[in-house]
Amino acid sequence: MSQQGYVAAPPYSQAQPGMGGYQGGFGGGPAQPLYGHYGGPPQAFAAPPAGMMKSPVSSAAGMPPPPASNQYNPNVQQNGAHPQRYPAPQAASVYGQPLQSPYNSMASMAPPPAQQLTNQMSSMNLGNYAPGPMQSPPPPTSSVQQPFQTSPPQAMGQPQMSPGPQSPHMSPQMSPQQSPMSGPPMGGPPMGGPPMGGPPMGGPPMGGPPMGGPPMGGTPMGGPQMTGPPMAGMGRPFPGPPGPGGFQQPGPGAAGPPGYPQQAGQFGGNMAGHQPGMPGAFPGAPGGMAGPPQKKLDPDSIPSITQVIEDDQVKRGGQVYSTNIRGQIPPLVTTDFTVQDQGNASPRFMRCTTYSLPCTADLAKQCQVPLASIIKPLANLPENETPLYVVNHGETGPIRCNRCKAYMCPYMQFIDGGRRYQCGFCNCVNEVPVFYFQHLDHMGRRVDFYERPELSLGSYEFVATLDYCKNNKPPNPPAYIFMIDVSYNNIKSGLVKLICDELKNLLEHLPSEEGVEASAIKVGFVTYNKVLHFYNVKSALAQPQMMVVSDTAEMFVPLLDGFLVNYQDSRAVISNLLDQIPDMFADTNESETVFVPVIQAGVEAFKAAECSGKLFIFQSSMPTAEAPGKLKNRDDKKLVNTDKEKTLFQPQKGVYEQLSKECVAQGCCVDLFLFPNQYMDIATMADVPSHTGGSVYKYNNFQVETDGEHFLRDLRKDVQKSIGFDAIMRVRTSTGFRATEFFGAIHMNNTTDIEMAAVDCDKALTVEFKHDDTLSEETGAHMQCALLYTTINGQRRLRIHNLSLNCSSQLSELYKSCETDSLINFFSKSACRAILNQPLKTVREILVNQTAHMLACYRKNCASPSAASQLILPDAMKVFPVYINSLMKTAPLVGSTELSTDDRAHQRLLIMGMGVEETQLLLYPRLTPLHNMDVSIKTHPAPVRCSEERLTDSGMFLLENGHSMFLWLGQAIPPDLVQNIFNLPSLAHLQGNMCALPELDNPLSNKVRAIINDLIEKRPNSMKLHIVRQKDKPEMVFRQFLVEDKGLHGGASYMDFLCYVHREIRQLLT
Ligand SMILES: [Zn+2]
User: Which residues form the Sec23/Sec24 trunk domain (predicted)?
Assistant: First the structure.
């Protein structure tokens, strides 16, 4: 890898014909059999038919904002803000948001501590602030004054002070920055506190393509200076640290021959064989290192995610984001904003890795930036945003292009006085149906433009006609079947009683469509161990009746009438049943269970009732009873870090594979709640959920007292969340590109139709696009996602999301329009799929290679010339390396024998269904200080960087990543704080297993509990609160979430990783 040429290793994201999707990189063979991919040559659309218009279809970019009061809904709230107007849409199309002076956004920030300005940062700040070109030398340390050429290779990270033309620098120890185009350097933001500042320049910061505004220049970094053997911390997640003599020896004293390092020598031999938990790991102090002591690089000086999040919140928080501009980059997922749909789908439904596609396949290949869209088709909208309109065209159904079948949308161009329209996807000219005819106004727009959601909005729904229903019959409302493992473990732990008690309450709150009082969902109940028990809960019965099926080889449902019922009708019988179940099995000795027959029973029940629905399965052990799908323990830690490690993630085939297909065909979604005390083969057991839009929850060593509430919160959320069933989705694109890869809890029978037994509001699919022709800068690129599904009330609907992107022949446009959070979602999913087929080491190598490649390509093509020692990052991707490094340290990818195989498999599957918000939070947890917050302020205190350095002995910090939550207590925490939070005199009195805070009536306690409850409520998964004291053993678990630090199970610190990537980039550029 170290010797590869600039465009050597093709990234796995660029499929080549016949290479199975992950060319070169992730697996040569076909990806996963269950996931379709385009293996064949690109199939372009047929030649345009005669009579096709030559003029380009108008894009949404030119669409003016609709009248201030939205005609569809006078209640659209705009939070008091004006919808944004864009006087010159074309020019503004890259930066949809109003240009804002960086000073504004920085104004409120405290000036950096003087200390931070002095050393590494000095040059940059001086450069940015000085009225003239920066001349001041950096502090006189020997390292910084050495010109690069004579520096030893090890010094690559040392500050380089040569004035470079880079301008908007957010980077640490940067050379003085001066825009070549703007006279005196425009001030950058004060760099101390917010070290990475915002994009400072108002003017075109660099000499490349003219830039409309903010940050283009990239983020040059003077090369993080390394203090210690930087690679020692790099652990194993990526290819491997250079050995001693290279990177590791710090300081000028270790100088080798002048000039660039011999790359092969640096990296070659060391890559393969480094040891887990490298000896010596990361020295705690510079004193532990060889070589003369060296100034330590201020961690504040490398790009910070918390800063990026904060900057975006300052800049775009609280605003209305109007979707009327093509290729507009939305605020970050972490920013609070309100969306107003004006012709493109809300970013809550669709986000993209870049909002400016490269015009040609060659450009795409050159930069290796994946082109993908992350789609959460049923995403929840906040209350102040308008729910989607439902359009009903009666028996004729939605209007679609005759050729490509795209649905009527804002990208259809009406012509010929309104009698025909040209499709924005395939360019075919279609007749307008008579009933749909409307005159055009002087701008060529239909006069009913604002009255029809499908003409003016990015997202809306159509009522589907019978043509869109199975067997041309309207669907029945879906059903929920609760299937409870009543074997010994679950009875003994009290779980069965807990579930039964909760269901009585939960069934009162089954979801229903907005505005509909009673839920239409039918419910049914099964208990099982080695055999299955079905219950007749017909309302006419005084007592529920049980029917036992002990032949699990050929599963059938012994009763039809009375099994799936309306809860309201059968409330009394069901309540009776739920009271009885725990007692019925109280004396059981049965410890073996079946599993596949349980799911089969659910599918059979849905078949018989001609409905779709969801199975809620509560199981505590691996199915070892004699029955189809019987499993045995195949866990083998010896496989970790070998080429066979992938088998740990691969599900057992055969009956499970077949079962997934049957479930999808019937619209049977499977949710699994697992309560394991030991290995369960989650890779296999979760296979059906992961192909049916289901969720998998896991509670290790479940105890009612400490885990009960956590589980019940998950169960409530899961039962009540909005969901669609029996879904099929298709992503259409305008000519020149198309969807080729699909990642999610989905099933694909062919290369285009994404099948989901169900899709809920939290599930996201990631779709990758490839070119098959040249894209036009003028018309841009359109995509339309159409989801056909059955609502919770049993109505068949089509949900349409449209999005238009820019296209450019300039790579700088692409980099400028990238969204790091979406990129990282794509990489997370593609890597998690790749580990099914490839050694983890290879997957990690590809991640690092591709990261370096993407950044090198930016450097080569988009940044102005500068010293090779500078690390220059595109502004929109400046925190990308933190995420990639964190990704490689996640349980599935890290390759550690200390992690349980089931935990790793579970997290892998979770990631596959995640949206952009979830992967962002997972890979960069929020670490929030709570000891010094202002309890009178409503908002949450600002998070700090996820690193041990941010913890203070006297502090209290909350860390959460959407799946785990910790309250960390420093050992020197003041007693009054302990008193206020725990009602205890000191930390020593704290019980080890506490998982909730006592309800104390003081402002601090109220505030801390409010923050915790808010997060638990807000995240898709509930979280269990772990309370950890500094230096206690459980603190180790907490520390693995400090993703900027060296990984506990292997993996580099952020700083080391950045140095490593920088090195890779330099190799690519030589
Ligand atoms: Zn078409």
Answer: 475-719
